[in-house]
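Revision sheet: structure tokens.
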Amino acid sequence: MAELNLNRVEMSRQDPSARVNNFLEVALGYNEEEALAEAARCIQCPKRPCTNGCPVGVDIPDFIKALREGDLARSARILKGKNKLPCICGRVCPQETQCEESCVLARRGAPVAIGRLERYVADWEQNQTTQEIPPISPPTGKRVAIVGSGPAGLTCAADLAVAGHEVTVFEALHVPGGVLMYGIPEFRLPKAVVQKEIDAIKALGVEIRLDWAVGNTLAVDELFAQGYSAVFLGTGAGLPMFMNVPGESFGGIYSANEFLTRINLMHAGEPGYDTPLSMGSHVAVIGGGNVAMDAARCAIRAGADRVSIVYRRTKAEAPARAEELENALEEGIDFRSLTNPVRFLATARGWVSAMECLEMELGEPDAKGRRRPVPKPGSNFIMRVDTVVVSLGTTPNPLVPATTPGLATKSDGTLVVDQEGRTTKPSVWAGGDAATGAATVISAMGAGRTAAASMNTFLSNPYQWAGPTAEQ
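Predicted:
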């Protein structure tokens, strides 16, 4: 085995005092020297545990080897052979719990920075005058409809287009990209980067139709009537969850979905736009995940004097990525641990003015292994706030299942699918958050790839449908 180099190359970031005043990307990426130095740390393991840890199976040692040999075109080709959205994944995927966690060097606490190298190669490829288009199979004459243009839908669409099928993506919003556009802030994932990735997929022959809300504008069964042979549902999980406590309907209380959509698609936090977002002085964000960090960091950039993340557990239990929590704290965001709102108070005009909260303490572990928060009796206190953002997770929108006979869902609203992504309705597949609940971009992409392979098999040689039963 080659000598282990545990000196991981760090990536430059905007200074916190500067970045709180802009929406520009915080992480600045590697330069050539830094990328080559980090790539040199890979020991090219013959068993490739990192590839096994990647949900889409990227040949990680191969793309890194090509990078350090100076063949960036080959490195990008290897990356995009399995991952059609590498610029995005290099920025937002939790590599620390996937490929990097499986890296041999991780045993010594310094895995190869696979995500940063992926971003470097993908950015290089995206910035070339022309991008390489992979070989596309001869036309099959089969038409496929993809519902939703998030990471699952885009990945599925790209793989099916390469296989020679005619692919149309139906997107309910006025811009493609799904959560990549409306949910993740500019400072973490620039919209221009997403658009270029989408343009590359369109170059494969994929058509994207905007402002088409399947389940409303037209139903799934109408897609079949229009000549589509198969349908993939990548509708995501855009229905926000709330606390269901008194006063939650007061003005100034937003779901994280609405708040981030206003910021990301309506430019509510930027001067010069006609879609302002009134926040007042103190914004409280309830929750401890990545979306809560995004909302809090947007609020501080949009002009709030003070932003507090209110979480019923502690930082150690927060599901947010460590770097996102670190970024939030660096930007001056207050983290109120072991605090749980139980009631909202309002002004005479019905605008939120305060939260009644309970102090919590950690008890025994719950079903997921995290210690359960337990209220401290008599610990009620009042926290003054001007705006509240509730970030407690999301569930799938029920519109498509409600208008699609034969499409079964589970009790949590997710679609019933088998290991190939097949639903209970013949010729309909699903994947991503619509089938799993809110998860990661890369896991949604993995589901899109899996479904595309199954759909290609079905389209090439239709068989009697053997999808899951409603009980599954």
